[in-house]
Structures are given as C-alpha cells and as structure tokens.
Design a protein that fits this description.
Blueprint (H helix, E strand, L loop, with lengths): L40 E2 L15 E2 H11 L3 H18 L2 H5 L2 H15 L9 H24 L3 H4 L3 H4 L3 H5 L2 H4 L16 H18 L13 H7 L7 E5 L9 H5 L6 H4 L16 H5 L6 E5 L2 E5 L5
Parallel strand pairs: 1-2
Antiparallel strand pairs: 3-4, 4-5
Helix pairs in contact: 1-5, 5-11
Length: 310
C-alpha cells in the first residue's frame, strides 16, 4: 500500500575484462557467488570470495586493483573512492580491530590458545619492522602490477588474466572464508606454471595466517588492506591519547598489545600515541592500571579512558 523509501545505490563501476565471474571452478579466482547483496566496498576484508557472494562487494585493495586493470573512468570510481576515504578517515584502523572478519578468525585462534594455556609468542623488533615494510611493499606492488597489466602490450597476453587481482590470489581470505559457507575453494590451479606458483604463494600466506594461533594478529602485520588504512591512523578522527604525567611505565600496555606496539609505553611527551600499526582494539586502555592515563577520542570527543583497576 505504501511505497518504501527510494534507495539510491552508488553507481556501478563499468567493468572490463578480466572479471572474477569469468573464472572456472578450477581457477584461483573462482568465486561461488556472482553478486554481493550490497554494491559497496569496505576498507576491511569484506572479501569477494565469501561463500555465495557475501553482504559487501569486496575490500578496498580489490576495488583499486580491478579498476586500475580495467582503466575505469574516474567518474565511475569516484563515489567508491569517496566512500572509502570518508569511512577510513572516520574510524581508521578500528575497522581492523573491530569489524574485519579475518581479524575475528585470528582473535578466535587467540582465544583457543589461551584456553589451552599456551603462551603467546612475540616477534623480534627487526622482524616486526621487516613485516611492517612488507605490508607496504605488498600494497604498492599489487596496485602497480594491476596498472601494469592494463598496458596494451601486456593486456593482449594471458598474463593479464593470470595476474589479475594479484593480492587477492595471495590473501588467506580467499581460502579461509568459503568453508564457512560449506563451499570448497580452489586449492590448486594447474593451468600453467605461473598459476601453480601463485597457488604455492597462496598456501604460504595461509600458513603464515595460521601462525596467528601463536602470534596474535600475525597476518595483520603484512596485510595490504591494513597498510592502506594505516595512512589514516594519525590524523583521522579516532585517536588514542596518553597523559604521560599519570603513567608509571609499568609496561602493561605493551604486554597486552596484539601488535607488539611500543609507542604507547615509551612516549614521554606527546599526547597523541596512535601508531600506524595500531588497530585501536583498546586492549591497552582496558588494562592500564592508571585512571585517565589513556583515553580514546573521536573528533575530540571522549569515548572511553583507562579506569585504573587493570
């Protein structure tokens, strides 16, 4: 009887080839669902490979990669870029800490480890720095390769089709998400030597991801999607602050941090202590034994602070 509110979706990106929907069942980029419920990209692993399509279209790196390869017009991509920029500026890497489904799986593994009474492992500082650089390398290499295979000299060869969505082929979400919907992903692509090599890299990345059982949020340390979000961590609306005069330097914040971040503990002068690796999970705020030493603000408005009971 009554007409519902009119919905105005974001304009659909005009696509070219290749597309994930064109890949056969035995190919790495095969997807079980042709369309998502909402034509929106999120700044987390809202993966295209979720069983039967999922709620959202894909992650931000997927969106950037495919449109660089398709050479889509700015007019069609701009709404998606604007949406991603706004939500990233608003919540930065809190998307990783609170919303990312792959992060939820890693947190579940951490919970199981704790139940079994197994101590977590910490990475050395040099290794931590190496992984930090690796995620930025993966981001820019993936986007650079996506643009390179659009060049006519390459796009006319089968390299374009085999290297399409390079990061998606490596990402453990491609293999980890489908089984939750009783879908068997493509575990092995024997089409060519290159696809077999990409298959092997995918297995290596999956094994690295499973290392999150011992090292909390291990994949987050090399995730290209998180790397893209990290540029909004310092300067975004969400900020972690410290009142150094109230800090007793007990080290609780560093001990409980799943990303092994030292900045919050070591900072003696600056109020803003949001690190680019920080996922704003707020474990440091929760565990800080000093009342009001740490606080979180959104656009300058206080959200929560350390309560002082540890």
């Amino acid at each position: 009887m009554f007409a519902g509110p009119k919905q105005t979706p974001l304009p659909e990106i005009v696509s070219g080839t290749p597309r994930t929907t064109q890949y056969e069942r035995e190919r790495i980029l095969w997807v079980s669902g042709k369309e998502s419920v909402l034509h929106l990209y999120l700044p987390i692993l809202s993966c295209r490979f979720i069983a039967n399509g999922g709620m959202f279209k894909a992650c931000s790196v997927h969106m950037l990669s495919e449109n660089l390869t398709w050479m889509s017009s700015l007019k069609m991509v701009a709404p998606h870029l604007a949406f991603l920029a706004v939500v990233s500026f608003a919540f930065s890497r809190a998307w990783c800490g609170w919303v990312c489904p792959l992060g939820a799986i890693m947190d579940f593994m951490t919970g199981v480890r704790r139940r079994l009474g197994i101590d977590r492992k910490h990475l050395s500082r040099p290794l931590g720095r190496f992984l930090e650089n690796t995620r930025h390398f993966l981001l820019f290499f993936s986007l650079g390769l996506a643009a390179l295979i659009a060049v006519p000299a390459i796009s006319s060869t089968d390299l374009r089709e085999k290297l399409f969505l390079f990061y998606c082929q490596l990402c453990p979400a491609r293999l980890a998400f489908p089984p939750f919907g009783a879908i068997n992903p493509c575990w092995y692509d024997s089409t060519s030597a290159l696809t077999m090599f990409m298959t092997l890299l995918g297995w290596v990345c999956l094994g690295f991801f499973l290392g999150s059982f011992l090292v909390p949020r291990l994949w987050c340390r090399v995730c290209a999607v998180g790397a893209l979000l990290s540029y909004f961590n310092r300067g975004g609306l969400l900020a972690l602050n410290k009142r150094a005069e109230r800090c007793t330097f007990c080290g609780a914040c560093e001990r409980v941090c799943p990303m092994d971040i030292e900045r919050v503990y070591r900072e003696r002068e600056k109020q803003l202590v949001t690190d680019t690796r920080c996922m704003l999970c707020l474990r440091c705020v929760e565990e800080c034994p000093e009342e009001g030493c740490l606080d979180v603000r959104w656009a300058g408005i206080g959200i929560t602070r350390s309560k002082g009971y540890g």
